[in-house]
Every structure is written in C-alpha cells, then in structure tokens.
Specification:
alpha+beta; Four Helix Bundle (Hemerythrin (Met), subunit A); Heat Shock Protein 90; 10 helices; rod-shaped
Length: 447
C-alpha cells in the first residue's frame, strides 16, 4: 500500500529580520544618544555661558548701583548745611567708593553680555563723573560755595545718569535671563518629546520583533506537529509492515520448513525400524540424524513462535506470555516470575501484540545488559487501563545506555500508537523497572 507523505520544507530563518531589527534599534539608539548629547552640551553652554554669567553680571551691577546710591547719599551729606565739615573732608569717603566702583565696573565688564557701546558709555560716564568730582574738590579749597553749586548743578545729574544706565543694564540682563529661561524650557520640552518619540519607536520595534518571533514560532510548532504526525504515521506503517513480515516468516517457517523437517524425521524413524536391512552403524547414524532434525525442528518452531506467536491470536495475551516466559528462561538462564492481577476489558489483538512486543524487548534488554539473575513480569488490569511491568535486579538506570537505540524507540512508538505511556524507573530493590500503561478505553481508535 502506497501512502502519500507530506514533505515539510523549512521556512525562511528569522535571523536576517532579527539582525535588521537589531541594526535599526542600535542605529536609533545611537542617533538619539548623539542628539541628546548635543542637546545637553547646548544646555550646558546656555547655562554656563548665559544664565550663570548673566546672574553674576547682575550681581555686579547691583553692587555698582549700591555704590552709586552711596555716592548720592554722600553728596547729599556734603550739601547739608548742618554739617560743620568742609567739602574736602568727604574726599576720603569718595575715594573708597571710587575704588569699589572701579573694581565692580572692571569685573562687570568681563561678564557683561550687553553691547560694547553701552559698556563704553558707562565707563566713559563713570570717568567723567570722577574727573568732575576731582575738579570740585580742587575748587572747594578756594571757593567752597562755587563747589557746592557745581555739585547741585552737574555732579548730581551725572550720578543720576549713571544710576539710570546701570538700571537699564539690569533690565537688559533680566530680559536676557528670561530669554535663556525660555530657551531652557524649550530644550527640556524638545528633550521630553524626543524621549517619548524614542520610547514609542523602540516599543514599535520590540513589538514588531516580538510579533515576528511569535509568528515564526507558530509556524515552527505547526511544522513540528506535522512532522510528529508524519513520524507517528510512518512508525505505525513500519510496525504494521514489521508485524506482517514476522507473521509471514513465522507461517513459512512453521508451515513449510516445519512440515519438511517433520517429514524427514518421520522417514528417518521408519528407516530405523528396519533392523534386518540395516547394520548397527547405519542405524546409529540414522538416529543421530533424526535427533539433529528434531532439534532443528524445535528451533524452527521456537523462532516461529518468537516472530509471531499464533497463540496470541488464538488464546490471548496472558497465554502467550505464559508460553514465552519459560522459553526465555530456558534460553537465557534468567528466572522470571510472572504475576497477573485485576479485572478489566480483554486487550484486543492490536493492543495485545504491541504489549507482547514491549515485554519481549524489555526482556531482551534484561538478558543483554542488566547482569541480573532474576526478573519479574507483572500484568495488572483495571476498568480503564492495563499496566505491564518488567523489573530486573541488575545495574539499574545508571546504565541507561543499555536501553538506548532502536529497542527503546520501538517500545516508545508502540506506546504512542496505543495512546499509552512508557516509563523507565528505579526498581525498589535496585535495577530497572519498565512500565507500560495502556488505556483500554481507546482500543477502537488504534485498532
């Protein structure tokens, strides 16, 4: 019988797609990192070059403004008629204020962010103020009244102009600081937006990669299921072909060779009953040949029984097992204890032959590899299942390699065909326990 087997072709590997996704992700991370570094560098420059410098400049302008206010107060004190001191007595105080103002102005010129003409106006006005003050102090030595008049007319006006210029610079600094704060907020807003965009892009990439992997794994599992189903079908066909071959060979051995050997034995027996026609030597030879033929016939029958026990079809599983175990003991010298218990449905012919083959394979492993002198075969029935156990007292599971190869594969395939379960366990007294559990309620499915 020919069977069509579906050929599953491997799909395209997701490696290329995953590597492409990884490259895109790394590129996005690199671009975003570079952009973030540029933004942070610009923010650092804005903070260090504009905001912090502007604040320092504002503090120095406030210092200048405070000194100018002190100058104004000193001029008022000079013009107060209640003071008994001459104008030249205030010269030392103005000298101290001048030193402080010139120091503050020099420092402010280093941090000022205003235009150079405004700074030149402030420094020029400051120089004119001190020059006028020096001339007034010189005039006060000869004409104090005229000196007081010049203070009222020009010097106070110069001082007011200086205070106005400083106030204007402070206003400009405040405007610059507000602009810098707006730029800072804008940079933070752009950074926050880019973070959200970057996270969204990464999530999209991760989602796309995850969906691709899920889809690929789904296809792979579908192919695995198809291959597993094909393998089970192929195993079922191979086991069926094997059993049919064993049945054919068994019948040929039993029917053809068995009959031929039986006929030869009968002819030799008849020839040996003619003592008058045969001498003693020929009679002895005929007897030896007859024994050889009988031994060969016994071996053929044993081999036929091992290949396909006809009693399995005629009398059932238990009878076949009870006949097989003494033959196994005779061939191997291993004593086998058999035990049957429980009540349940009788296994059908398909279930029986598979359970019988599992027992044969397990006993063959005991004889070949276990180094055990005793073994036990147990068959238990229940309403739902039948349990077959083959236990030995040999080397156990630490010699697990002894149950590898085609024997274990065959037992597992037969268990799967029966929808059962094959277990390899540690026996209580050491050794190995092979347990086959077969649900008898599913016999119609695998029949």
């Amino acid at each position: 019988m020919m069977h069509n087997i579906l050929v599953v072709r491997p799909g395209q590997s997701p490696t290329i797609g995953l590597l492409a996704g990884l490259a895109v992700t790394l590129s996005a991370v690199g671009i975003y990192a570079a952009y973030t570094i540029v933004q942070l560098h610009g923010l650092r420059q804005l903070q260090a070059g504009t905001i912090d410098r502007n604040r320092t400049d504002s503090l120095l302008l406030l210092r200048i403004q405070n000194d100018l206010n002190s100058v104004n107060l000193a001029m008022r004190d000079m013009l107060d008629n209640d003071e008994p001191y001459p104008l030249t007595a205030w010269q030392a105080q103005f000298k101290r204020l001048r030193v402080d103002l010139e120091d503050a102005t020099a420092r402010e010129s280093k941090f000022s962010a205003t235009a150079s003409d405004q700074r030149q106006y402030l420094s020029g006005s400051m120089a004119q103020f001190w020059d006028a003050l020096d001339r007034i102090f010189a005039l006060a030595r000869t004409d104090e009244a005229e000196a007081r008049a010049r203070i009222r007319i020009s010097l106070q006006a110069r001082q007011g102009a200086l205070s106005t210029a400083v106030a204007r610079l402070l206003v400009q600094n405040n405007e610059v600081e507000q602009q810098a704060a707006a730029q800072t907020r804008q940079i933070y807003a752009h950074g926050e937006r880019n973070v959200y965009l970057f996270l969204a892009a990464i999530l999209i990439l991760v989602l796309a990669t995850g969906l691709s992997l899920v889809q690929y794994n789904k296809r792979m599992f579908e192919r695995v299921d198809e291959v597993s189903e094909q393998r089970s079908e192929l195993a079922r066909q191979l086991i069926t072909v094997q059993e049919n071959t064993f049945r054919y060979i068994s019948r040929e051995l039993h029917d053809e060779f068995g009959q031929i050997l039986t006929a030869i034995g009968a002819m030799l027996q008849r020839a040996g009953r003619r003592p008058s026609e045969l001498d003693s030597h020929l009679r002895t030879d005929l007897k030896e040949v007859q024994e050889i033929v009988q031994s060969t016939l016994d071996k053929v029958r044993t081999l036929s029984q091992a290949l396909h026990p006809a009693v399995l079809e005629e009398a059932g599983l238990e009878v076949a097992m009870r006949q097989q175990l003494p033959l196994f003991e005779k061939q191997t010298g291993i004593q086998v204890a058999y035990e049957s218990s429980g009540n349940g449905p009788t296994p059908d012919q398909t279930t029986a032959i598979h359970m019988y083959r599992v027992m044969q394979e397990a006993l063959n492993n005991v004889a070949r590899h276990s180094k055990a002198a005793r073994a036990a075969v147990r068959l238990r029935y229940s309403a739902e299942c039948a349990v077959l156990e083959v236990e030995d007292g040999g080397v156990g599971l630490h010699g697990a390699a002894r149950i590898g190869g085609m024997g274990l594969v065959s037992m597992r395939e037969r268990a799967e065909l029966l929808h059962g379960r094959l277990e390899l366990l540690h026996a209580d007294g050491g050794g190995l326990l092979v347990r086959l559990t077969v649900p008898l309620t599913a016999q119609e499915e695998h029949a």
